[in-house]
Inverse folding.
């Protein structure tokens, strides 16, 4: 099974845009709300060398998560994947 994991904050407009895109395209995803976990957000920012949220990961059984990037990266990734 392939799905996306979005690490971010519910108050972040870019996190919301990423979730809305996946909903519109009927793609499985989970949103990890980290509004009240600044240390955890910083951990993932450091781990994936990101400076902002969302941090979008492509998850696939048996494989390490693939970093897609942020909201803009997700839009481009899905566009490229669909050949649009």
């Amino acid at each position: 099974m392939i799905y996306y994991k979005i690490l971010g904050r519910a108050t972040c407009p870019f996190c919301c845009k990423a979730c809305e895109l996946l909903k519109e395209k009927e793609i499985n995803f989970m949103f990890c709300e980290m509004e009240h976990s600044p240390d955890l957000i910083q951990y993932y920012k450091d781990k994936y060398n990101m400076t902002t949220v969302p941090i979008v990961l492509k998850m696939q059984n048996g494989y390490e998560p693939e970093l897609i990037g942020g909201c803009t990266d997700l839009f481009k990734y899905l566009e490229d994947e669909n050949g649009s």
